[in-house]
Structures are given as C-alpha cells and as structure tokens.
Amino acid sequence: MNAPLLAHPRVLSIAGSDSGGGAGIQADVKTITALGGYALTAITALTAQNTRGVQGILPVPPAFIRDQIRCVVDDIGVDAVKTGMLGGVAETQAVAAEIHHIRNSLPDLVVVVDPVMVAKGGAALLTEEAVACLHTTLLPLASLITPNLPEAEKLTGVFIRSVEDMRAAAQWLHQRTGAAVLLKGGHMEGESLVDVLLDSAGYTEFAARRIATRHTHGTGCTLASALATKLAQGLLLPDAVGQSRQYVHNAIRHAPELGSGAGPLWHSHAWYPTSRS
After folding, report:
1. What is the pTM of this model?
2. In the prediction, which pLDDT does 105 show?
3. 213 catalytic, yes or no?
C-alpha cells in the first residue's frame, strides 16, 4: 500500500459529529489539519455528547450522506477516505456505494475503515444489523481496517485475550476482506500495549507503555484519520502506523484535562504544546 506522494492530501472523513469536540468529525478535522492534509467531511449523525458520554443521537438521512460525499468529491476531489461512526444498515450501504463509485475512477484510493461500534461511555454507534452489512459492503473496499479488541471480537467471533489471539483475529479479517488490518491492543490489561499490523508482508507488532490517564476520548478516530493522511502522503504502511501511533501518543500526553469524564486529546500539540510533560 503506497499512494502517490502528496504534500497536502484531500482526506474525506465520513463519521458522526461529536458536540464535545473530542472524537468523530471534530477529531478527524483537527488531526488531518495538524498533519498537513485538507479535511473534507460527510456527517452521518449528530450527537449530543460530552466527556461523560453520549446523551442523544440524531441520524442523518442516507440520501443526504450521499449528497455530502458527492458534492465535495465532484468539486474538490479526494485522495483518501476515512470512515467512522455509520449507524445503521441504510447508512452503511450508502457510504459503501459511494466509496465503490469513487473507486471506479480512483482504484488506488486509500480507504481506512474504523469500525466504530460503541462509544467510550457505552452508547451503541453501530446497530447489530449493520455489523453484517459492514462485512458484505464496506470492509471489502478497505485498504486498512483499524478495530479495537471488542470490535475485532464482534467482527470475527475470535475470543481475544493475548497477542496470539490478536494475530489470529487479524488473519481472519485479512483473509476475508483482502485489507490490511491494524488491531489495536489498548483494551488489553497491563502496562504494556501492543498493536498488531497484518498486511501482505506479514505481521508487525508495535509496542508502547500505557499512559496513566482518563483523557483518551477519540483515540481511535484520531489514529484512523492520521493513518489516512499519512498513507495519502505516500508513506509505506508500517511507517504510517509508526508515525500515527506517535502522534496519538503525544496527543494523549499533552491532553488539556478537560471535562469530568473521558477527556479529549490535544491534537495541536505540534503547534501549541500544553504544559504537561
């Protein structure tokens, strides 16, 4: 997976809006911009949420999701797509159909699918029926899939309690979709975190020490958007993963400590570092 070299790629985020600004479209726009991309958006749902959780969800009609995608792609163009919260079957089908249409003219389009299912506070962001739809419509279009452990268990049926289990789940997804898989190990217990990447070259493991903090809202959205941007800039996949993980690590380390629940990251740490070390 190696896109043409682009200094300022056009990255389309298709995801839900987070009124608290920490995840979803808001986190994606901040990340893409901080890393030198130009952010385009198609909003799949409005949410009323803060650091304590999601208080309400208002889905966007699938036809209007398609309108958002078409109007920005037809005029501005696109080099990479990142998907996040989709909602239900109709929304998932609409997004997949539009990405398939774009791929007809851009076969090398970078597509990063973050299969967002549940918010940090526990709210369901993907219906049970939509999980099967995700398998048949969207995952086969992905260049890279970035599930966390609960999402990987839901997608594969593999019970994950070790790095070996992570490798097995990644292989299951890779074989059935053809996409590269970055399985995130943040939900595993212990001070050491391991993410497992599987692509056509085989497995690569990325290890780091856990940061003791409650300010981790939006880490998955941020990582997927960083990956879409880095891949569209022409980085090889392992390099894109390494740099994107470091960006998220620094964003957690410089978190502004906002809210009383799962606080947001500091996406602008490269420009405006906070006082946290």
Report:
1. 0.94
2. 94
3. no
